[in-house]
């Protein structure tokens, strides 16, 4: 009798164990997350311009770096805050770049840019470090972008200038180890770094979740 009972139970036990095995990976991949509030929460429903300053040496090696970074950051802010119910407008970075090309002093004057494009706020970044190749081994790629970030209130009451200093951003890609410099790798690393950096900047302005 005992043998028959055990035999009858065996298939059920096997199915139970199989079910447990199927569930195990699901448990392992679920990561706890936490909500992060915006560092600056006044861009919702506003018109925003992005202005990036880069050193002449950076623009000599990467002539379009200023415009490219402003484009990636502006696109990320718009995709997260403009296409949703937040209603944020972003000035076309092509118009900003064209304006500062013709008005050199405006590249360090967020208020001039803001007034030119009827913006409420200007997100202003100063590139403190910009490199795509590994500084220790130029035959490898390991991008680094470091920048200060501030927001300028173009419509401050009484005509006074109001500037909000945010935490700086430092982006390294790839983080694990550099990759060989090749014609294929160079544009891929550069684009991936731009996207990562832009997200780090844009996340300062909207609530998001991160792994805890």
Query: What would you call the structural class?
Result: alpha/beta
Report the end-to-end length measured between terminal Cα atoms. Answer: 54 Å
In terms of DSSP E residues, the strand content is: 25-35%
Low-confidence stretches: 1-20
Number of helices: 6
CATH class of the largest domain: Alpha Beta
Named CATH architecture of the largest domain: 3-Layer(aba) Sandwich
* Number of domain units: 2
Write a brief caption for the model:
This protein has helices at 2-29, 56-61, 65-82, 93-102, 110-116, 185-202, and strands at residues 33-36, 47-53, 89-90, 121-133, 140-153, 162-173, 179-180, 208-211.
Task: Describe it.
The N terminus is likely disordered. The chain folds into two domains: about 30 residues; about 180 residues, Rossmann fold (3-Layer(aba) Sandwich). By secondary structure, it is an alpha/beta fold. The protein is built from six helices and eight strands.
């Amino acid at each position: 009798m005992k043998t028959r009972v055990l035999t009858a139970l065996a298939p059920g036990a096997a199915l139970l164990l199989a079910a447990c095995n199927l569930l195990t990976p699901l448990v392992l991949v679920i990561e706890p997350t936490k909500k992060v509030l915006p560092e600056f929460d006044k861009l919702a429903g506003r018109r925003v311009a992005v202005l990036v300053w880069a050193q002449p040496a950076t623009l000599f090696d990467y002539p379009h770096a200023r415009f490219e970074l402003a484009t990636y950051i502006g696109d990320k802010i718009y995709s997260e805050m403009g296409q949703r119910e937040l209603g944020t407008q972003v000035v076309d970075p092509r118009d900003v770049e064209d304006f500062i090309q013709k008005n050199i002093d405006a590249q360090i004057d967020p208020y001039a840019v803001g007034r030119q494009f009827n913006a409420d706020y200007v997100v202003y970044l100063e590139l403190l470090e910009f490199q795509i190749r590994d500084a220790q081994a130029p035959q490898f790629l390991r991008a680094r972008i470091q920048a200060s970030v501030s927001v300028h209130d173009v419509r401050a009451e009484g005509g006074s200038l109001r500037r909000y200093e945010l935490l700086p951003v430092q982006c390294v890609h790839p983080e694990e180890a550099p990759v060989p410099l090749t014609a294929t790798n160079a544009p891929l690393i550069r684009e991936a770094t731009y996207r990562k950096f832009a997200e780090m900047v844009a996340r300062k302005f909207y609530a998001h979740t991160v792994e805890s």
